[in-house]
Design goal:
Length: 279
């Protein structure tokens, strides 16, 4: 009988030791699982950012002047931007809220476009909750680097041989493919004119033709206030003299005012060739 009691005690002690061993090994395993899961979320978020956010906020989240603010910036993570807008929660919650619900009006004191699109399907956008979480994870992944670097947005480069603002400027032959790359990349045009309706749509919508077709007649309309004499001059004006003619329903000053200083003649020719291809 005694040996049975002893065997039972050894069995119980063995189970206790085994349970403790499993418990001790579970924490590192869970930490490894969490790290792996976080890495996958950041990777998924990076792809979502490239497809949905890059056109406005720039390839590294440093912002595009006159289009959208930097989000890879120290003031987002050190609390100063949150304090300026009266946000009392965490940075992560702020980022999630802005992505999910969008921004119906720009931040006070800024000249960015009228709104940021709503992205969460809870509010009529295209992204599921897990996709919003992945996008948040990717943006928060910038925190340490942004704080270390000071988070300053890269200033627009000084362009040698900039095209200026003359509507009658002589332009080289344009490359529509490169123009599309400029619109979707460095200039951020697609963020407002293709991906969202911040500015007039470039693509054909309903009975409204694309910008390439509209340019041929826009400068002849009764409400036209610019100085263009033909379709090319109209498109030049639309890029380098953005307030010369404001399309009905849109406010002034929502486009950058310095494209004439930022674009070469070839850049402008390529961009116009792309716009002309959208019929």
């Amino acid at each position: 009988m005694k040996w049975q009691i002893a065997a039972g005690m050894f069995l119980v002690l063995g189970l206790i030791v085994l349970t403790l061993g499993l418990a001790l090994s579970e924490m590192p395993r869970m930490e490894l699982f969490k790290a792996s899961n976080d890495a996958r979320a950041v990777e998924s978020g990076a792809l979502l950012f490239e497809n949905s956010c890059r056109a406005c906020h720039g390839p590294q989240g440093k912002g595009i002047e006159g289009v959208a603010p930097p989000i890879n910036a120290a003031d987002l993570y050190d609390g100063s931007r949150l304090a300026a807008v009266g946000w009392s929660g965490t940075t992560e919650d702020y980022v999630r809220n802005v992505i999910a619900a969008g921004r119906p009006v720009p931040s006070a004191g800024t000249t960015y476009p009228q709104r940021m699109p709503t992205w969460s399907d809870r509010f009529g956008g295209p992204l599921r909750d897990d996709q919003v979480d992945s996008l948040v994870a990717f943006i928060m992944n910038w925190e340490d680097r942004a704080l270390a670097e000071g988070g300053d947005a890269a200033p627009p480069p000084v362009v040698e041989g900039a095209v200026g603002t003359d509507l009658a400027v002589s332009l080289p032959e344009g490359d529509a493919v490169r123009g599309q790359q400029l619109a979707e990349g460095a200039l951020g045009c697609s963020g407002c004119h293709v991906l969202a309706d911040v500015g007039p749509a470039w693509n054909a919508v309903g009975d409204q033709p694309g910008v390439g077709t509209r340019a041929a007649t826009r400068f002849t309309q009764d409400d036209y206030t610019g100085q263009a004499a033909d379709a090319q001059q109209y498109l030049v004006e639309a890029v380098v003299q953005t307030n010369a003619f404001i399309v009905s329903g849109y406010p002034a000053n929502i486009m950058p005012q310095n494209y004439g200083d930022r674009l070469t003649g070839q850049d402008l020719a390529d961009l116009i060739a792309y716009m002309n291809s959208l019929r």
